[in-house]
Recover the amino acids of this structure.
């Protein structure tokens, strides 16, 4: 059997060389049959489709056949034949079966119809199910689409640091990183922890965003993007929050807010189009099994222009709706952030298309955003999607050294950690813009999954860092 | 000027539509000239090449011209003309110049010929130099090559966790991650730190390798690769070590050690070929300025088969050389790890080609490697390169549950953290193999740079987490 090259199932299902001898390897999904013939559905992870193995019982050792249970790993040699049954074009008439690995009876993915909650507690084995196979093949494809898009458009992939000694945007609680022995912490004379002998000689944390360093890249290489892990130590036990997630942050020199909106819309449509073109089988499965409106929603986003309006206009629409009797849980007042219900009303009920909201009140946005002439708003932009709400957040950046410093002082951000960032405005400053996309938010949208813990292989959440 | 679309310099240098009006934006590298005419070398990061701007002094405001210093940011409109000077095909006869950002006189990249050590202390601005522009464009291209290679070969990009509660392979000291207030740590009754209320409810660290989780992916999806940050808290101040670096770890179900060697060789040749084909200008610059043997070495690796021999054969060659008078700093004895001088002797002096060494003594390799029948060695492989020494390390994995458990017990590795890993051997185990490539090691090799701190934008090393 060694001399025959293994064929992946993703290639085999398109093969029509009936009569040829093939070798497939994979894991048993199901086995059924009669006294005379067994039908084994084998999957190797390369596609959601199984190949059907037909085994004439009398040709094989009975003890070996007993080992062919759900989850067992097989190498099968046989003849590729046209399938008699429905649902597949071909099947394999087995001539030799080797059990590479038996499967203990307590295999956690044995039964059908287990809940996602249950499978989350067996995240190391859920990868072998149809749903999670589909999700993670799509996740792979979305990463490919992202790299392709930026490479084709002249961006450079730029690795911003994961461990940082400065809190980039105050975007939430951070994880501290240390090599000190916590049972034996050195103290200063004032009784505080002494970081002099910690690994970095000072307090260090995990990054909450690569944007500020990304701006250093963009103002040198012209256009960069990051794609790396990001951390938030918020104690949020929701289907929307992860403590560790992946973020994509493009940053472009000479782009203004309009260029930034054009980029965001073109980029995300490219990604979704990529999924529609490259993940057909997996999307069809998810559309059937997880979310019957998935494909419709993906086509809808690809085929519609994103409506662009200001935050102020958005508030007016919401207030008009309230005046006409629409009820919301949270109040709508100019100057406060929109909640998810407001965003989804605008996208799903009122305008019925993806929206880009711009020019938010400066008080609810980060210090580095470009200040508008009205003195009240900044050139921020949020892209709002059906089901998801905000999928992208970005802005044109304040390029004026004086305005930026004034805003930093206004917000009492410690200036000492910001010298290198401010240097970009001292040495050949330029207009520039960028945005951030939470990778798992995109995967939620593209797969129709409802819980963010189900679109990353091993989710990190409060009290959970398993596997 | 707003209505004319900006042209990137990387596109402009190939443009032969002389007489057309163009807009370029970028940073001033140099300015020279006479009383009548100024020559400005402008760079926008899209390529190592500058475009020459020719400005007739009398046509422009004298105060504006004074602002055109090294590092200033300009938008220039002008006519594309055939160049009179050597070294470039075209230049721009300026009709309008806007200074987008002046550059303060203390611009740290003002002077030529500054040392890499100096530039490292200004890592936020070194990105605007020729050398670091070239290095980081090549770094981008290597990342693209890696993703392309694996995607084209049916691998899925798989995100293994960064924060982990288990020490994967005992591969060195780890950074601890916590949300507790270190000035106010809760203690257990025994006086030890109490992790019950830490974010994950237990002690957590930064990953040293994604391999074990990668094996979960490979034994479900068939073939995966990781590409993410990895951390080692070793107090190593060398040109070879980073506390935070990026690693690529492919893992493939059904691959044996020979398949693994074939994959490693094919993969790394693909990456280097990609550099030769896609980074010509940057490589030529580095070959001229940093390392005159760079291109020769890259072609050498692409054009030669990697020699495959066992560790034992390698030891014999070294011992024979010693017997013939060759001196080494470290002794050569079967059972100990080769040092860099030994590896380089084999590659550069003796065999004069890249080498793959296999079948190392089990004592110097990790617990998960497949045990050979001799009871002494494991199916490990190291790929050794000129200049770099070990660039890839990998192995076939032990697929036998019993042998793996025996080895774990022999090494006193805590079994309680390993249940999920062992499950892969209980439920349909299969032969599988993989390897790890340190991304920065690859970039060192492909750029000819000598210090690993110069091939990552913002290096993290003992006592240094700047920017």
């Amino acid at each position: 059997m060694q001399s025959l090259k293994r064929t992946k199932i993703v290639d085999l299902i398109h093969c029509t060389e009936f009569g040829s001898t093939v070798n497939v390897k994979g894991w048993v999904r199901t086995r059924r049959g009669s006294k005379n013939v067994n039908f084994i559905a084998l999957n190797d992870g390369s596609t959601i489709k199984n190949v059907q193995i037909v085994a004439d019982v009398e040709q094989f050792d009975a003890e070996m056949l007993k080992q062919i249970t759900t989850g067992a790993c097989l190498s099968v040699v046989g003849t590729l034949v046209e399938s008699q049954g429905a649902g597949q074009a071909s099947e394999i008439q087995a001539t030799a079966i080797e059990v590479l690995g038996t499967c203990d009876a307590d295999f956690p993915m044995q039964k059908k119809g287990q809940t996602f909650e249950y499978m989350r507690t067996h995240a190391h084995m859920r990868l072998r199910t149809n749903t999670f196979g589909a999700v993670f093949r799509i996740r792979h494809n979305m990463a490919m689409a992202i790299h392709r898009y930026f490479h084709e458009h002249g961006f450079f992939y730029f690795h911003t640091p994961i461990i940082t000694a400065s809190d980039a945007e105050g975007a939430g609680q951070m994880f501290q990183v240390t090599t000190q022995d916590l049972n034996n912490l050195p103290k200063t004379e004032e009784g505080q922890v002494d970081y002099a002998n910690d690994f970095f000689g000072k307090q260090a944390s995990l990054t909450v965003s690569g944007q500020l360093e990304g701006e250093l890249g963009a103002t040198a290489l012209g256009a960069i993007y990051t794609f790396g892990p990001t951390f938030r130590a918020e104690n949020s036990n929701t289907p929307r929050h992860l403590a560790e997630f992946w973020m994509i942050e493009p940053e472009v020199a000479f782009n203004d807010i309009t260029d930034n909106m054009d980029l965001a819309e073109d980029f995300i449509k490219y990604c979704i189009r990529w999924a529609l073109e490259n993940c057909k089988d997996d999307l069809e499965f998810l559309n059937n099994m997880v979310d019957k409106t998935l494909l419709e929603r993906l086509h809808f986003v690809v085929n519609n222009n994103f409506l662009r309006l200001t935050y102020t206009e958005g508030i007016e629409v919401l207030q008009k709706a309230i005046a006409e009797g629409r009820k919301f849980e949270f109040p709508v007042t100019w100057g406060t952030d929109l909640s998810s219900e407001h965003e989804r009303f605008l996208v799903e009920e009122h305008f019925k298309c993806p929206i880009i909201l711009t020019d938010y009140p400066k008080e609810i946005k980060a210090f580095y955003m470009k200040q508008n002439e009205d003195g009240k708003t900044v050139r921020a932009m949020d892209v709002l999607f059906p089901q998801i709400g905000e999928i992208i957040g970005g802005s044109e950046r304040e390029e004026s050294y004086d305005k930026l410093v004034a805003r930093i002082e206004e917000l009492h951000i410690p200036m000492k950690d910001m010298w290198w960032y401010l240097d970009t405005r001292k040495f050949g400053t330029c207009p520039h813009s960028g945005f951030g996309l939470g990778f798992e938010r995109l995967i939620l949208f593209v797969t129709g999954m409802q819980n963010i813990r189900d679109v990353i292989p091993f989710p990190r959440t409060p009290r959970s860092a398993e596997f």
About this structure: Chain B touches chain A through 103 residues (CB under 8 Å). The longest strand of chain B covers residues 21-33. Chain B has a mean pLDDT of 95. Chain B has 14 helices and 16 strands.
